[in-house]
Amino acid sequence: MNNRQPITLCLVSALLGGLLATSWQSDRLDAAVSSDEAVNIRVYKYESPGVVNITSTTYVQDFFDVYPQKGTGSGSIIDPRGLVLTNYHVVRNSEDLQATLADKSTHPAKVVGVDPEDDLAVIRIVDPPSQLHVIQLASSSNLLVGQKVLAIGNPFGLERTLTTGVISGLGRPLKTDAGTTVENVIQTDAAINPGNSGGPLLNSEGRMVGVNAAIYSPSGGSVGIGFAIPVNIVKHVLPDLINRGRVARPWLGIGSTPLTPRLAHNLGLPVNQGVIVTRLYAGGPAAKAGLRAADQVVVKEGRWTLPADIIVNINGKPIADSNDMSSVLMNIDPNAVVTVQVVRGGSIVPVRVQLQPRPAESTQ
């Protein structure tokens, strides 16, 4: 008995020691994933099923033949009926769309609406499964530089890849393929590569704050400068994309060019910036309101005159160039009546203009 007691005590001691060590290692592991890693794991686990891999096919004709050209991108399920939010450039000119879900099933899809100016589009999965995970939209109005963000997408065809980072900057301008500029874009260092376009940029709660759209890269790969369309822009245009197929934007019906400080000085104007009306579209809002247009300066008896109105303010918002004008009009109802302040004959004159929805082929 005396010989067995130490052995028993040693076994008990070893067993307790092992349990304590295992418990300590478990505590270390829990501590390791209880903060930043836990957020990454949770967001990916719950939100990646809402990310779609989009394959688009366009048909290109060369000198000899017509051949298919495939492109890939990402999208976010935003409605249980199978509506998917993505970038316009992901589906542009596509003649065949396929959406691959998290369960590896592939479904045909159709374009519902496109917004080239904001590089956004909505597609619909044909005959979607009954259970789809919807990614919820947050707000982009209260974002902060340094805030954690996560991107989920399909870079280089690698499905549902997670990258993480922070918001590196806010209020960035981003020029789209349509030649327009999207204002207040989110800059992030979360790695974004070809194939990520259209996928969600998420906050720590797994809610979408932006749509990944572009990178700055001399080499074509990620260098830590990516851009996402703010979700507040998405919320603004989404009803039109779903219900109309395009965004109804207000239209002034003018052609324009910016006023330079030098020209303003030579003309003796009371302002040094604004938008010169160079063209009036027949039957357009500006023409009906009596605005004046001219595309050149007239020199008479040594004096410079410009027989055109110069727009300097719309509804109390100063206008320095066409981007200002587009930004102001974007937040106004397409059928609203606005007060446009113009410089005419050396004086600032208010003109009331009844806007109308912009035709598809026009810009202002």
Can you describe this structure?
The termini are far apart. About 5% of the residues have low confidence. With 364 residues, the protein is an alpha+beta fold. It is built from 7 helices and 22 strands. The strands form 5 sheets. A 6-stranded antiparallel beta barrel has the order 1-2-3-6-5-4. A 6-stranded antiparallel barrel has the order 7-8-9-12-11-10. A hairpin with a 2-residue loop joins strand 20 and strand 21. It folds into 3 domains: 80 residues, Trypsin-like serine proteases (Thrombin, subunit H); 96 residues, Trypsin-like serine proteases (Thrombin, subunit H), CATH 2.40.10.10; 108 residues, PDZ domain (Pdz3 Domain), CATH 2.30.42.10. The radius of gyration is 28 Å and the shape is elongated.
Which features does this protein show?
Thrombin, subunit H; Pdz3 Domain; 22% helix; 7 helices; 364 residues; single chain; 22 strands; alpha+beta; six-stranded antiparallel barrel
Domain count: 3
Distance from first to last alpha carbon:
99 Å
Order of helices and strands: HHEEEHEEEEEEEEEHEEHEHEEEEHEEE
Q: Using the 3D structure, state the CATH architecture of the largest domain.
A: Roll
What fraction of residues sit in β-strands?
A: 35-45%
- Summarize the biggest pleated sheet: 6 strands, antiparallel, barrel
- Which radius of gyration do the C-alpha atoms yield? 28 Å
Per-chain topology:
Elements (H helix, E strand, L loop, with lengths): L3 H30 L2 H12 L3 E11 L4 E14 L3 E4 L1 H4 L4 E5 L5 E10 L4 E6 L22 E6 L7 E15 L5 E8 L11 E3 L5 E8 L10 E5 H13 L6 E2 L2 E5 L2 H7 L7 E6 L4 H5 L8 E3 L2 E3 L4 E5 L2 E2 L3 H9 L6 E8 L2 E8 L1 E2 L7
Antiparallel strand pairs: 1-2, 1-4, 2-3, 3-6, 4-5, 5-6, 7-8, 7-10, 8-9, 9-12, 10-11, 11-12, 13-22, 14-15, 15-18, 16-17, 18-19, 18-20, 20-21
